[in-house]
Write a structure and sequence with these properties.
Blueprint (H helix, E strand, L loop, with lengths): L1 E6 L7 H15 L3 E5 L4 H5 L2 E4 L28 H11 L4 E6 L1 H14 L3 E5 L15 H22 L2 E6 L6 H10 L3 E3 L7 H13 L5 E6 L27 H13 L3 E5 L11 H19 L5 E6 L2 E6 H6 L6 H5 L7
Parallel strand pairs: 1-2, 1-4, 4-5, 6-8, 6-9, 7-8
Antiparallel strand pairs: 2-3, 10-11
Bound molecules: 6-O-phosphono-beta-D-fructofuranose.
């Protein structure tokens, strides 16, 4: 078989581990050829590719990012995009394509398979941990470690200067990074997209803590967290090809608002892409490797339109349609674990 592979959407620690697993088992065990497409869906659209070999993928396991490059190109936003991908796959004599990505990349993979009959399967990735069909995505554990370490470090300044430190972490639709790093790092306020916040309640929590003799507070906020309607103004940013607004800004808005309302000196830190960068944790390397192995096995068996998912401790193949149907967000019960520690 000749199989293509691409990485789409935001980069994520563990992508190279998936590529390495696909190449290693694909070539060594099955005797397949693996073609790597450049920069997400842009690669198969523009026919930009390179042959991947065991030699060319050596040493990439601990490397962050993706050796294939990535983009947020949406093939369905290009005139004749899906047809072009089909033609390019045919001209390269590809039997199928493995798309490693988040909700957008997998959404496009699902449509290419379901609506255009292309032999495509997916591998779920995102630091946000919000893909519905899998219990965990690789990249999340690494982002969580980075965010927790940042909170630990910010405690120093918060305590020494008697400040409120606001830490903005990633999490567009789901607050997993904020919730888990907030719990692990001992955050005093944790704000997530699933639960619009009331700024007055936030300030009350901080005030209560200070009235009990604590002289500093840590507020962990997911970038996608929003105030309850009519309670605080925020501005929208630009959108990408999948219609996503460029986020980042809620931390600084909170900094001003908390300082104005409480009188406590407040500083915001936006962790941004630091959470996506650098070497994956051991957990992410192993999960990514397991996904890569499951993906090449699935491709070998012609299980197009599916994706490996972690269910409990087992890797299972699930339909791509199921994977993109719903986001995995934080439920009130899951958030409740943090509540006794707030304020
Ligand atoms: O989807 C992963 C993610 O890291 C989100 O948490 C974040 O909102 C987004 O990507 C940022 O994307 P970009 O790097 O394109 O600004």
């Amino acid at each position: 078989m000749r199989l293509g592979v691409l990485t789409g959407g935001g980069d994520c620690p563990g992508l190279n581990a998936v590529i390495r697993a696909i190449v290693r088992k694909g070539i060594d065990h099955y005797g397949h050829a693996i073609v790597g497409f450049r920069d997400g869906w842009r690669g198969p659209l523009l026919n930009q590719h390179e042959e991947l070999t065991i030699e060319s993928t050596r040493g990439i396991l601990p490397r962050g990012g993706t050796i294939l490059g990535t983009s947020r190109t949406n093939p369905f936003k290009r005139e004749g995009g899906p047809e072009q991908i089909g033609e390019n796959m045919e001209s390269l004599h590809l039997d199928g394509l493995i798309a490693i990505g988040g909700e957008d990349t997998l959404g496009a993979a699902n449509r290419l398979h379901a609506e255009h009959g292309l032999s495509v399967l997916g591998v779920p990735k995102t630091i946000d941990n919000d893909i519905g069909a899998t219990d965990v995505t690789f990249g999340f554990d690494t982002a969580l470690q980075v965010a927790t370490e940042a909170i630990d470090r910010l405690h120093t300044t918060a305590e020494s200067h008697h400040r409120v430190m606001v830490v903005e972490v990633m999490g567009r639709h789901a607050g997993w990074i904020a919730l888990y790093s907030g719990v692990a790092g001992g955050g005093d306020v944790i704000l997530i997209p699933e639960q619009p916040f009331d700024i007055e309640h936030v300030c009350r929590l901080i005030g209560r803590r200070h009235s009990r003799g604590r002289v500093f507070s840590i507020v962990v906020v997911a970038e996608g967290a929003t105030p309850k309607e009519g309670t605080m103004e925020i501005t929208d940013g630009d959108t990408d090809e999948f219609g996503h607004v460029r986020l980042g800004g809620i931390g600084h808005r909170l900094e001003r608002e908390i300082e104005d309302r409480t009188g406590f000196e407040t500083r915001a830190t936006v962790l941004g892409h630091i959470q996506r960068g650098g070497t994956p944790t051991a957990y992410d390397r192993v999960l990514a490797t397991r996904f890569g192995i499951a993906a090449i096995d699935a491709a070998h068996d012609g299980r197009w339109g599916t994706m490996p998912a972690l269910r409990g401790t087992r890797i299972e193949l699930v339909p791509l349609a199921e994977a993109v149907a719903e986001l995995r967000t934080v439920s009130p019960e899951e958030y409740a674990v943090a509540e006794p520690f707030l304020g």
